[in-house]
Write a structure and sequence with these properties.
five-stranded mixed sheet; nuclease; 38% helix; Nucleotidyltransferase, domain 5; hydrolase; alpha/beta; 5 strands; RNase_HII/HIII
């Protein structure tokens, strides 16, 4: 079955009311180790008239081999893009939803200064829950959109940009803790990852507050 490419239908409609859209998508929410990342991609009316980059899809629908190339095209296509992070320690301290808000707030601050955000800027994010407003210091207009990562090209761009950045970080961290095989599982709960946790305990990069395995925490 062929995969339908994301479109700009929603963005074009919204950009009749707003000057800017900041599209957000998260990566790493369900991982056992590593930070959560939120990608941000800025779209304006002029950008919404440009052709969607070839191969752009929700990051889960792009093969790992192709993702860096697609992410590069996506970053060149949008007005601005960046990735915000919240660490495993922050997830342990404040919980995953507030950590998502922290990462989103950092991503927004990286792509557009918070002092220029006004009523003419709209944030759209994938899903059905606004995890941004409770954390971000500015009064933001936020619109959750179910399946936005699949259907909205700007959110697909944010998704693949964040996925490539987080995967690259987990490959770097693998060199410090090779037993967990993060270069393969990117911190998610593969059988090999869980087995390594039972044998090695938890690293400082694991989300220690989560029920991961019956293993001690190693710091």
């Amino acid at each position: 079955m062929s995969v339908v490419a994301p479109r700009l239908t929603l963005e074009r409609s919204l950009l009749k009311e707003y000057d800017l859209i900041i599209a957000l998508d998260e990566v790493g929410r369900g991982a056992l180790a590593g930070p959560v990342a939120v990608g941000a991609a800025v779209m304006d009316a002029a950008g919404s008239r440009r052709r969607v980059p070839e191969g752009l899809r929700d990051s889960k629908l792009v093969t790992e081999r192709r993702r860096p190339e697609v992410a590069s095209r996506a970053a060149a296509w949008v007005v601005a893009s960046d990735v915000g992070w919240a660490s495993a320690a922050e997830i342990d301290e404040v919980g995953i939803m507030r950590a998502l808000g922290l990462a989103a707030s950092r991503a927004i601050g990286a792509v557009i200064g918070t002092d220029v955000i006004g009523e003419s800027t709209l944030v759209i994010l994938d899903g059905n829950h606004d995890y941004v407003s409770a954390v971000h210091p500015s009064r933001l207009q936020v619109r959750p959109v179910i399946k936005a990562d699949r259907d909205c090209a700007s959110v697909s761009a944010a998704s693949v940009i964040a996925k490539v950045a987080r995967d690259a970080l987990m490959v770097e961290l693998h060199a410090q803790h090779p037993a967990y095989q993060w270069e393969r599982n990117k911190g998610y709960a593969s059988p090999e990852h869980r087995a390594a946790i039972r044998e090695q305990g938890l690293s400082p990069w694991h989300r220690a507050s989560w029920t991961i395995a019956d293993a001690p925490t190693l710091f």
